[in-house]
Design a protein that fits this description.
By secondary structure, this protein is mainly α. Helix content is 54%, strand content 2%.
Length: 382
C-alpha cells in the first residue's frame, strides 16, 4: 500500500470549472467521499464494517466532472478489444491443441504453461468480459455480447452472461447488503477470519466463490445465461473432440490457476478489500496494468464506467487531486502476500450498508440536483 501527499489544489476541487463557483456538497464526505467508518479486523470484529451512506462513486463522479468536465471526452469504446480477444483465443486454443494432441504426456510442462501463460491469458479474458459487460468494446450490444462469448470459448465454464448480470448489480448497489453479489457470505466471514492457511485456500478456490456467491442470490437463470450455458457446452465438446481431453484440461487449469494464486487475479482482492479506514475502493498503479489492460484502475472505472480500458489512466492524469490523494496499491504480488499473511485482514475486510441507508444517500443527490436546477431556473427568469 502506498500513500502520497495531497495533490495541489485539493481544497478547490468543489469549484465548477465552467462558472468558477463553489458547487453544492452532496454529503459530508465531499469532495473525496471517504467514509468515517473503521475497517473490520478479524479477531476483533465479528462482521464486515458498516457505513450509513450510499456508495461513493456516483457523487465522486459529479464532483470530478464539475472540476474537470473534459473527462467526458474520454467516454466511448475501444474496438481494439475485439482484436485482443481474437489473439488471446488463438493462443489458448493453440496451446490446448499442443498439449492435447502433440505432447499429451508433458504433464509438468502443461501445469507450468497453464499457470504462467494460460493463467495470464485467462485473466485477460476476465478483463475482456468486463469490458463487454459495460458495452465498451463496441457501440453495438450484439457485438459486445459476441466478444464476451468469444472470450468465454477458452473458459470451460459459462461465466460471461452471469458476470454481466451480477457485475452490473455490483455497480448499482456497491456494498448494499443482500444486493451486492460481490460481498462475502456469512460463512466466509465466520469461518475464515484472519487465519493464514484458510486465506490461502480462500484465494486458491476463489474461482469457485464467484459461482457460490451468484447461486446464493437465489435468482433463476436469465435467457442469456441459458444461451451462455448452451454455447459453452458446445465449445467444450468441440475442444474435447479437436484438442482432446488434455486440451480441455489445459483450459480448465488455466482458469483455476489464473483466477486463484496468480498476480493477475490479485485485483479481486485489491479492488474492494478495505486496507484502510473509510476507503472502500482501491486502484493499482503498477506495471502489470500494461499487460492486463488497466484493470487495476478501479477507482477510475467505478467513477466513470463509460470510459474504456485504454483511457482509464487519462482520468487520473486529468484529475490527479481526486486520485493521488487516495490510498492505492503498487504491487499485486504484495496484495496477495499481505492478504494471506496479515492476520488483521480477511474476507470480512469489506464495508456494507443497509438498503435504506443507500437510498438515503442517493436522495441527497436528487435533492441537490433539484436545488441546482431550481437555481438555474430562477437566474434565467430574474
Amino acid at each position: 500500500m502506498c500513500t502520497t501527499p495531497a495533490a495541489p489544489g485539493l481544497a478547490d476541487v468543489s469549484t465548477n470549472a465552467a462558472t468558477g463557483e463553489k458547487s453544492d456538497l452532496y454529503d459530508p464526505r465531499h469532495p473525496l467521499y471517504l467514509g468515517d467508518w473503521k475497517r473490520s479486523i478479524p479477531g476483533v470484529d465479528d462482521d464486515i464494517a458498516k457505513d450509513n451512506l450510499d456508495e461513493p462513486h456516483i457523487k465522486r463522479k459529479r464532483a470530478i466532472l464539475e472540476a474537470h468536465p473534459d473527462i467526458k471526452e474520454l467516454y466511448g469504446v475501444d474496438r481494439t478489444t475485439g482484436i485482443v480477444t481474437a489473439v488471446c483465443v488463438s493462443i489458448q486454443l493453440a496451446l490446448a491443441y499442443t498439449f492435447g494432441r502433440l505432447y499429451p504426456h508433458q504433464n509438468a510442462l502443461l501445469v507450468a504453461v497453464a499457470y504462467f501463460i494460460g493463467g495470464t491469458v485467462t485473466s485477460m479474458f476476465g478483463v475482456i468480459i468486463h469490458e463487454a459487460t459495460h458495452g465498451l468494446c463496441s457501440t453495438s450490444l450484439a457485438v459486445n455480447r459476441i466478444i464476451g462469448l468469444s472470450a468465454n470459448i477458452c473458459i470451460p465454464f459459462p461465466i460471461f452472461a452471469s458476470f454481466r448480470r451480477y457485475h452490473l448489480e455490483h455497480h448499482a448497489y456497491q456494498g448494499v447488503l443482500d444486493k451486492d453479489p460481490d460481498l462475502p457470505l456469512n460463512w466466509e466471514v465466520k469461518f475464515i477470519k484472519g487465519n493464514t492457511l484458510m486465506k490461502m485456500l480462500f484465494v486458491f478456490f476463489y474461482p469457485l466463490m464467484y459461482v457460490v456467491r451468484g447461486a446464493a442470490m437465489g435468482k433463476a437463470p436469465s435467457k442469456w445465461e441459458i444461451i451462455n450455458w448452451i454455447f459453452t457446452i458446445s465449445t467444450d465438446v468441440m475442444v474435447w473432440k479437436i484438442c482432446g481431453p488434455k486440451g480441455l484440461l489445459y483450459l480448465f487449469l488455466s482458469l483455476w490457476l489464473g483466477y486463484g494464486l496468480h498476480p493477475g487475479a490479485a485485483h479481486f482482492i485489491q479492488e474492494h478489500f478495505t486496507f484502510d479506514d473509510g476507503q472502500e475502493t482501491y486502484s493499482y498503479y503498477g506495471s502489470l496494468n500494461k499487460l492486463f489492460m488497466n484493470i487495476g484502475y478501479h477507482n477510475e472505472h467505478h467513477d466513470f464506467t463509460k470510459v474504456p480500458w485504454s483511457k482509464l489512466p487519462d482520468i487520473r492524469a486529468r484529475a490527479p487531486e481526486f486520485y493521488d490523494t487516495l490510498k492505492f496499491h503498487t504491487s499485486w504480488v504484495m496484495v496477495l502476500v499481505k492478504f494471506i499473511l496479515n492476520r488483521d485482514i480477511g474476507p470480512q475486510s469489506r464495508v456494507g450498508r443497509d438498503y435504506e441507508d443507500h437510498k438515503k444517500g442517493r436522495k441527497m443527490v436528487v435533492e441537490k440536483i433539484g436545488k441546482i436546477a431550481g437555481g438555474d431556473v430562477k437566474s434565467k427568469t430574474a
